[in-house]
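Deviation from plan, reported transparently: zinc ion complex.
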Amino acid sequence: MDNAAALVVFSGGQDSATCLAWALEHFQSVSTLGYRYGQRHEVELDCRQRVRTAIRRLNPAWDARLAGDSLLDIGLFAQLHNTSLTSQMAIADREDGLPNTFVPGRNLLFLTMAAAWAYDRGIRHLVTGVCETDSSGYPDCRDDAMKAMQVALNIGMAADFVIHTPLMWIDKAATWQLAHALGGQALVEVILEESHTCYLGDRSKRHVWGYGCGQCPACRLRAAGYAAYLEQGPSPSRHAPERSNA
Ligand code: ZN
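Because the crystal trials were delayed, the predicted structure below was used instead.
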């Protein structure tokens, strides 16, 4: 096992971009893994590469630590599910109270595949941007689900994986605070400009909080979090690789 290597489950959204910066601070080698699962827009897959490129330019140490990226094609998802993320259904609540953007088993499968990918490569630290505090109520984003997955993976693979969830107990405003603490305003700018959150894949309009339709649940959560972050003001940056305008 390589204690210095980590794998980030990386979608190219605000949360996983923040997790990538977190991992680059904490591990010597950081790989990223994404999934093509029949998303109804490909825009977030494009954003993954842009976020990686922009993040490595912020900090020479991060540049040196950022290892390869892989994209797994799991098109079988479209066969399993008919949700608004993978089809043209309108976004609404389901009868059980969960939003129909919930894709049953998605995060569990993502983590299982991340562990399977990491296993042969000797990587045992898995980083995921799931969050219990400010989530959309997805049960597979909860702390207990992640702890249970860690146990299941370690028993089922006779391994010693550690699942890291740096965003688990913080809200979206605090996620911006964390980005600022990790990489200063320059990292906040990269996440604003390059990360993608909107469920509808809309990048036609740039708001103060980034691109998106502004109406879907993901856009509203991101916009509210950024507004709260601006109101609170950024916390002091630990490293502050601020862009020099001099
Ligand atoms: Zn949206």
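The pocket of zinc ion is lined by residues 198-200, 202, 212-213, 215-216, 218-219 (CB under 6 Å). We consider this an acceptable substitute for the interim report.
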